[in-house]
């Protein structure tokens, strides 16, 4: 088991290495394998990038993200201006279904509501918005609606796992409750845990994934 000092050393080094993160403004502490990130990011995208940095370090048990997002002064960064930019960027994104997403902005926090067919469409909308200046947070409330038989969902995910070299298929179990999927098991890293979840979301008809997979210390 890795010590907190070792984890902190590796996280700090990775933050310095990651070009999308201004490491001087973001700090990490570690206690019993739990990482707390703090400081001020220049954008919501940088905040997300910092959390991803911590997640890819072997031995991290959990992450508490307390990073704030600084807002840039200027008329085009008020809520009306942000809403206009969000509408434009979603309109031009080919992965986002046109006319099916509603946008609300309050104090820089963007709320997305509506219905899409696939998880990747919801993620594409979130990623597009996260890169906009002035955005301090995102509430992605998009619903996924693509009816498929639960048995087909489970079989599809199991088949996808068999194709993944980065995942020990024997270590993960798949249960379905309608269109909801529950993943259980024990893997060696957050990367494997994320791979299993992404593969589950890629299955047609999945509207919810509960990832109860445990990362071995």
Summary?
The protein is of the alpha/beta class and 217 residues long. Helices cover 35% and strands 29% of the residues. The chain has three domains: 4-69, 2-Layer Sandwich (Histidine-containing Protein, Chain: A); 75-144, Histidine-containing Protein, Chain: A (2-Layer Sandwich), CATH 3.30.1340.30; 150-215, 2-Layer Sandwich (Histidine-containing Protein, Chain: A), CATH 3.30.1340.30.
Could you state the order of secondary-structure elements as H and E? HEEHEEHEEHEEHEEHE
Q: Ranges with pLDDT <50 over ≥5 residues?
A: none
Question: Do you know the CATH architecture of the largest domain?
Answer: 2-Layer Sandwich
Count of helix runs:
6
CATH C-level of the largest domain: Alpha Beta
Average pLDDT: 87
Round the Cα radius of gyration to an integer and report it: 19 Å
Strand content: 25-35%
Pfam families: BON
InterPro entries: BON_dom, Lipoprotein_DolP, Transpt-assoc_nodulatn_dom_bac
Domain BON: 3-71, 78-146, 149-217
Protein name: BON domain-containing protein
What would your notes on this structure say?
- Strands 1, 2, 3 and 4 form a four-stranded mixed beta sheet that branches.
- The protein folds into three domains: 4-69, Histidine-containing Protein, Chain: A (2-Layer Sandwich); 75-144, Histidine-containing Protein, Chain: A, CATH 3.30.1340.30; 150-215, Histidine-containing Protein, Chain: A.
- The chain has helices at 4-17, 44-55, 79-91, 119-130, 150-162, 190-201; strands spanning 26-31, 34-41, 62-65, 68-69, 101-106, 109-116, 137-140, 143-144, 172-177, 180-187, 208-215.
- The protein is flat, with a radius of gyration of 19 Å.
- It is built from six helices and eleven strands.
- The relative contact order is 0.11.
- Strand 2 (34-41), helix 2 (44-55) and strand 3 (62-65) form a beta-alpha-beta unit.
- It is α/β, with parallel strands linked by helices and 217 residues long.
């Amino acid at each position: 088991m890795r010590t907190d000092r070792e984890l902190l050393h590796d996280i700090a080094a990775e933050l310095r290495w990651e070009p999308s993160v201004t490491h001087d403004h973001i700090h990490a502490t570690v206690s019993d394998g739990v990482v707390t990130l703090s400081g001020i990011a220049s954008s919501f995208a940088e905040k997300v990038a910092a959390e991803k940095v911590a997640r890819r370090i072997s031995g991290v048990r959990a992450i508490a993200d307390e990073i704030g997002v600084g807002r840039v002064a200027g008329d085009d960064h008020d809520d009306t201006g942000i809403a206009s930019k969000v509408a434009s960027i979603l309109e031009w994104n080919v992965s986002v279904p046109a006319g099916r997403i509603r946008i609300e902005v309050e104090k820089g926090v963007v709320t997305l509501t509506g219905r899409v067919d696939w998880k990747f469409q919801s993620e594409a909308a979130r990623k597009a918005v996260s890169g906009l200046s002035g955005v301090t947070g995102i509430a992605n409330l998009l619903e996924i609606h693509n009816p498929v038989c639960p048995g087909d969902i489970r079989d599809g995910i199991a088949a996808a796992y068999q194709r993944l070299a980065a995942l020990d298929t024997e270590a993960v179990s798949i249960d379905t409750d309608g269109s909801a999927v529950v993943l259980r098991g024990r893997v060696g890293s957050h990367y494997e845990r994320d791979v299993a979840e992404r593969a589950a979301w890629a299955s047609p008809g999945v509207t919810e994934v509960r990832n109860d997979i445990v990362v071995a210390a």
